[in-house]
Amino acid sequence: MSYHVNYGKEKIDFSLPKGWDSISAEDKPPISGVKDPMQEIRSALDHPIGSARIEELARPGMEVVLLFDDLQRPTPVHLALPEMMNRLNRAGVPDERITGICALGTHPVPTLEQLGTKVGKEVLSRLRGRILPHDPHASDNVIIGKTHRGTLVEVNRSVAFADLIIGVGECMPHPIAGFGGGCKIVMPGVSSYRSVADHHFNWMRHRNSRVNLLDGNSFYEEIVDAGRLSRLSFKLDFIINEKKEIIRAFAGDPVAEHREASQYAASLYLIPLSKLADVTITSAFPLEIGVQATKALSMARLCTRSGGAIIWVAPQKEAGSIMPLVKEMASDESAADFHRRLIQGSIPDHLKSFGISYIMQVVYFKELAEKFNVVHVTDGLSPEQVKMMKFSYSPNIEDAIRQVSEKMPQAAVALFPSGGNIIPEVR
Q1: What CATH number labels 37-268?
Q2: According to the CATH classification, is domain 2-29+274-426 in 3.90.226.30?
Q3: DSSP reduced 3-state for 234
Q4: Domain locations along the chain
Q5: Is the whole model's pTM more than 0.70, yes or no?
Q6: Residues 242-269: what's their mean pLDDT?
Q7: Beta bridge partners of residue 236, listed in sequence order
């Protein structure tokens, strides 16, 4: 039987050796966006989940903060913000009492020009001088409390003193938080560096910190605590396809709307498996650029048995962004030792300019190398660079299968032709 993986703009066909049995080879077809994005946005705002409408939450005289995610997300902020601002205006809140904050977490700070691209010309004009990037290192970030587990919550000053806080973001499968969106616009979005480090580094390796899990996921539940402490009142979350088109919009109470958005996202991307695979073959498609290509690998570890093999197929055409990660992987430090170092606040100098979520990848990749035989099929990285990651290199998928089958002549195989947009779940 012939199988395939998606690789860039082409499909690579291959067959499995005798003794290898497929337990899944499902490919998720592309999902079309809605025909009228503005109608979808207005419908979501008109029928909020677990909340009154924006027009009913706002009052004359209020100082309102609109939070939106950064350039690493495809969220159509330029469409959403004008509609939300118009509704605030109708409730008696003029543009002059509205501030827009880019909730970048600990990601690099965008320029004003980049912010203009994100929010659009109309918003840039209406909020002139009041479109700001969050600064996680700012000395005037404000401590507003601790979560019930003790995580310090320190947020942007404008958020701490606003009368009404509204967010715009994207809900998609997240390897640790269950799903993106919801209160993540606050934690890490507008939280201080030390708050994000305290939260992320402490909960990143808990067994329940994983995709498609909200209840019992401490990483996620701490994020909700931070959102509630910050008084985040209303959230608009989008589900977006690889073409950056809106599939669906959800709005309302940040927790209630996010739960419904997450359930909908799971229905689109979930692939059930009957058991853990001995071998997982996964393509990074359609998220093949830079660090995004690692998502398929993160998902593959959830459905592969310890000591098994993962064949990771990714072009790595723009591999520059992962090279600091590759460099750190070359060290002899174990995943546990590197994680312990992060908890102690000892971050390697060459990683300090990167966001905390990027630094966390070092721990996960070291863990992958320790737990699985990872074979990387790529033409964007050299064999030497792949070796630095403690992975095995292969120039093509047939060679990768040969390498693994020599050690594992009998295997249950999970195959994901488009591993960048799936949620594997062993039932």
Answers
A1: 3.40.50.11440
A2: yes
A3: strand
A4: 2-29+274-426, 37-268
A5: yes
A6: 97
A7: 168, 251
